Amino acid sequence: MTELSILGVVQMDAIADGMVVPHYVADRKLRIALARVDGKVYAFDDLCTCSDERCPLSSGLLVGRTIMCQCHGSRFALGTGAVLQGSAAPLRVYEVREADGTLQVRLPEGGQ
């Protein structure tokens, strides 16, 4: 199994409750989205898995603990990445922790 590393991502107060923001991890060439719901932060791949168009989920509709793709209507569970509606593949989700005023996201070592 691939080891995981913890990367500092963004200041905790940069994400208001009920908001989704994109973040680009340059050294991984990876777009992730960060969503805060009821004080808990979720991290997941920002690009929808529903087609070749790859719409950003950070521009989607956040409802409770789900995110819906603005392009195709696929809906995902934030905590698991499971597809709740639509023909998309499950999203990759990442462990998040808050430490020293910073959000840290655990990403796979050595790439996507």
Automatic annotation (TrEMBL):
<dbReference type="GO" id="GO:0016705">
    <property type="term" value="F:oxidoreductase activity, acting on paired donors, with incorporation or reduction of molecular oxygen"/>
</dbReference>
<feature type="domain" description="Rieske">
    <location>
        <begin position="7"/>
        <end position="105"/>
    </location>
</feature>
<keyword id="KW-0408">Iron</keyword>
<dbReference type="GO" id="GO:0004497">
    <property type="term" value="F:monooxygenase activity"/>
</dbReference>
<dbReference type="InterPro" id="IPR017941">
    <property type="entry name" value="Rieske_2Fe-2S"/>
</dbReference>
<dbReference type="GO" id="GO:0046872">
    <property type="term" value="F:metal ion binding"/>
</dbReference>
<comment type="similarity">
    <text>Belongs to the bacterial ring-hydroxylating dioxygenase ferredoxin component family.</text>
</comment>
<keyword id="KW-0479">Metal-binding</keyword>
<keyword id="KW-0001">2Fe-2S</keyword>
<dbReference type="Pfam" id="PF00355">
    <property type="entry name" value="Rieske"/>
</dbReference>
<keyword id="KW-0411">Iron-sulfur</keyword>
<protein>
    <submittedName>
        <fullName>Rieske 2Fe-2S domain-containing protein</fullName>
    </submittedName>
</protein>
<dbReference type="GO" id="GO:0051537">
    <property type="term" value="F:2 iron, 2 sulfur cluster binding"/>
</dbReference>
<dbReference type="InterPro" id="IPR036922">
    <property type="entry name" value="Rieske_2Fe-2S_sf"/>
</dbReference>
